[in-house]
């Protein structure tokens, strides 16, 4: 019995072992017969990672030149300049629809809009504003209420002459001639014992902005301001005032320059925040009371032609100041304060209003990047104008649409940008750079994180001499490189043509800061910017004479400024190549050494702190600033060394890229680019520019005050100008000390950003 039980156990064990062996055999058979694992996802990821190292050129400069179509530019120019399109008018609303329709029909683009509710300055009725000269016998001589139509154009919706955002008023009194309306011009009149209180100030364009002229006039007791374009400042040719529009491009005596007199960019009701429906808005009555610094002029202002200005100058008495003024009118320039016999007084009537809740429509067209879709290159232009705007800014609008068409053509041919491209059609620029600024405030964190550069084409063509490009220091060399990449129409390269026109005359690229849609990008977001325009020969005109007048029309552009639209085509070609260069180049073409050199030059040119006029009550701030100024110098020296090291690293990496090295880590290049994208942003300080809280860039921002002291840096310059007027107020000197401290801190932050040392 015992043997029989043991046998059964052995049989059971053998059966179990055999079963396990059979199961193991079947398992191995099944494992061997399994389908291979799906590695396609991993392979695609690996392929995409390798593709990040792609750096070949997508299209050539010759193909860009071959792609441009001037007939298309002409079509858009004719459509957009066929009627005035001032912000807040029916013609203005139609331009947004036109852009949406054209851009939506192009391959490769997604079109969308962003809207903001903003105020614009308008006239009350038609021709309700004017000045009059009242004679003792009751005779009244009026200024023109609207420019005389010298050529029949059938333009409707034309806005009468206006300085928008100036208050309405009906004032009368003597007239004084205050030249450019600068503080020193009013001081000069005081030295001549001219009574300014209760007078109307006649001033010429130039020197300071429209609003600043009126604010200065009010500060010296004037009750109104009249502004005109003097021929001596490039608006016409002195001694040849019969050679004007419509026979040439020079401003006729009836031509009037309109414009905004607002002292702060963007919507003044929502400073530093976008004008969205839920935004808290300051009341206009509150804003009008702000005086330090002011946002609006406290006195009425009105623009006139130089023909009307001559009427006023012709009845003024007082000292002959022609040698001081150096004007271009065939008349004696007198200080005024009294009238010629028989003239009783002058009267200025201004009927303006602020139209609230205007729908500002920014139109965008986005072409997604193939490899780095979360990095963007922007190119923009504004649509609104002060009339038909064939120059400002419809020339740029037509060029932007042609750039979009050319990019769409290359897209259809298989080209894809490495980084995303965003074309921007801004609204309400002429009323104080509003549409673009509101969008920057709305998207500020995303812009600072994602935007490589902003390219601005406001007035694409204002002459037929040469293209002229300006940029912040990081992109000045890149702007010239785009010209080097493009063949010129008559042989050679566009750069060689540019060099003959400008560089051989010691022309240096300047930094555009505060007068177009690039303003918010450089001053608030602190991202690199470029601006370009085709301009006139500077020996004849520094701008274009018909600026913001009713005569800035399509016939002037097509028959006088740019026959055949050659210059328009050149700007479009440059714009496409600039977009290609910034969106396609693997290693971003920044020049950090040029940025540091610019800051060093500013520092070296600044008046030393010991000469700032410190009062005894600010002795502790005096000592602090003089000591900290030395630290500023040392920080710049360290920056120069660091930028040299970075420049060497950039050069070495570029050489490896050009040599086709296979061991370059694409993610390392991406990180390197991202670090360099933040360089300009280290100059931004949200609290240091006390005079205007919408501005952040301590180096590249607008100045709001006038001063003879050169401080090199805008916020410091403004504070020193205020200190000159309030030198005994200790608080202003404390603010100066704090600002110097902020500047030095930003230099240290900039050095950390240039380094590759982690935290």
From TrEMBL:
Gene3D superfamilies: 3.50.30.30, Transferrin receptor-like, dimerisation domain (1.20.930.40), Zn peptidases (3.40.630.10). Coiled coil: none annotated. Belongs to the peptidase M28 family. M28B subfamily. CDD domains: PA_GCPII_like. GO terms for molecular function: carboxypeptidase activity. The lineage of its organism: Eukaryota, Metazoa, Spiralia, Lophotrochozoa, Platyhelminthes. It holds the Pfam family TFR_dimer. This is N-acetylated-alpha-linked acidic dipeptidase.
């Amino acid at each position: 019995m015992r043997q029989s039980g043991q046998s059964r156990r052995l049989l059971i064990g053998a059966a179990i072992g055999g079963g396990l062996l059979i199961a193991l055999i079947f398992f191995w058979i099944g494992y061997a017969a399994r389908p291979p694992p799906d590695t396609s996802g991993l392979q695609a990821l690996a392929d995409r990672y390798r593709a990040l190292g792609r750096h070949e050129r997508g299209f050539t400069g010759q193909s860009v030149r071959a792609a441009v179509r001037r007939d298309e530019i002409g079509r858009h120019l004719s459509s957009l300049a066929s009627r005035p399109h001032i912000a807040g008018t029916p013609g203005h609303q139609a331009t947004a629809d036109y852009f949406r329709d054209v851009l939506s029909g192009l391959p490769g683009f997604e079109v969308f809009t962003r809207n903001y509710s903003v105020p614009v300055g308008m006239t009350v009725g038609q021709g309700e504003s004017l000045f009059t000269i009242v004679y003792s016998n009751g005779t009244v001589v009026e200024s023109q209420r609207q420019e005389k139509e010298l050529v029949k154009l059938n333009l409707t919706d034309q806005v009468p002459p206006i300085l928008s955002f100036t208050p309405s008023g009906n004032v009368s009194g003597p007239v004084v001639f205050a030249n450019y309306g600068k503080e020193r011009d009013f001081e000069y009149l005081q030295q001549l014992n001219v009574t300014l209180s209760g007078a109307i100030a006649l001033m010429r364009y130039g020197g300071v902005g429209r609003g600043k002229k009126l604010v200065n006039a009010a500060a010296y007791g004037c009750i109104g301001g009249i502004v005109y374009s003097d021929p001596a400042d490039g608006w016409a040719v002195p001694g040849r005032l019969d050679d004007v529009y419509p026979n040439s491009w020079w401003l006729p005596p009836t031509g009037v320059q309109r414009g905004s007199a607002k002292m702060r960019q963007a919507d003044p009701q929502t400073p530093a925040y976008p004008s969205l429906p839920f935004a808290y808005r300051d009341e206009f009555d509150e804003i009008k009371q702000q005086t330090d610094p002011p946002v609006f002029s406290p006195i009425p202002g009105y623009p006139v032609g130089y023909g009307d200005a001559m009427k006023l100058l012709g009845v003024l008495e007082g000292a002959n100041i022609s040698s001081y003024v150096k004007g271009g009118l065939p008349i004696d320039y007198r200080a005024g304060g009294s009238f010629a016999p028989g003239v009783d007084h002058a009267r200025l009537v201004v009927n303006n209003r602020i139209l609230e809740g205007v729908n500002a429509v920014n139109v965008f067209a986005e072409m997604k990047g193939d490899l780095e879709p979360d990095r963007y290159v922007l190119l923009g232009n504004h649509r609104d104008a002060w009339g038909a705007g064939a120059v400002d800014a419809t020339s740029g609008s037509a060029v932007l649409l042609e750039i979009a068409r050319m990019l769409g053509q290359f897209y259809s041919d298989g080209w894809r940008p490495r980084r995303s491209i965003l074309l921007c059609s801004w609204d309400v620029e002429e009323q104080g750079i509003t549409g673009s600024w509101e969008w920057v405030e709305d998207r500020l964190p995303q812009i600072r994180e994602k935007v490589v550069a902003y390219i601005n084409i406001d007035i694409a063509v204002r002459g037929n001499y040469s293209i002229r490009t300006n940029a912040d220091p990081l992109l000045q060399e890149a702007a010239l490189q785009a010209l080097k990449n493009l063949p010129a129409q008559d042989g050679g390269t566009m750069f060689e043509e540019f060099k003959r026109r400008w560089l051989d005359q010691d022309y240096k690229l300047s930094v555009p800061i505060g007068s177009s849609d690039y303003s918010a990008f450089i001053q608030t977001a602190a991202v690199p910017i470029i601006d370009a325009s085709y301009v006139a020969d500077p020996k004849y005109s520094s701008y274009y004479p018909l600026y913001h007048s009713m005569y800035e029309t399509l016939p002037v552009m097509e028959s006088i400024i740019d026959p055949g639209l050659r210059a328009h085509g050149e700007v479009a070609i440059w714009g496409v190549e600039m977009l290609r260069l910034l969106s396609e180049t693997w290693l971003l073409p920044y020049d950090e050494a040029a940025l540091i050199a610019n800051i060093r030059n500013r520092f070296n040119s600044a008046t030393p702190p010991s000469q700032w006029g410190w009062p005894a009550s600010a002795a502790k701030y005096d000592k602090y600033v003089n000591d900290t100024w030395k630290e500023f110098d040392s920080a710049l020296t360290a920056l120069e060394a660091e930028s040299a090291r970075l420049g060497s690293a950039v050069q070495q990496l570029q050489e490896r890229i050009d040599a086709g090295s296979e061991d370059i880590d694409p993610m390392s290049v991406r990180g390197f680019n991202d670090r360099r994208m933040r360089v300009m942003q280290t100059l931004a300080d949200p609290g240091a520019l006390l005079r205007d809280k919408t501005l952040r860039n301590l180096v590249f921002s607008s100045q709001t005050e006038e001063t003879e002291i050169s401080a090199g840096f805008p916020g410091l310059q403004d504070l020193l100008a205020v200190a000159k007027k309030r030198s005994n107020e200790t608080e202003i000197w404390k603010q100066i000390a704090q600002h110097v401290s902020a500047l030095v801190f930003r230099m240290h932050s900039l050095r950390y950003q240039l380094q590759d040392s982690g935290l």
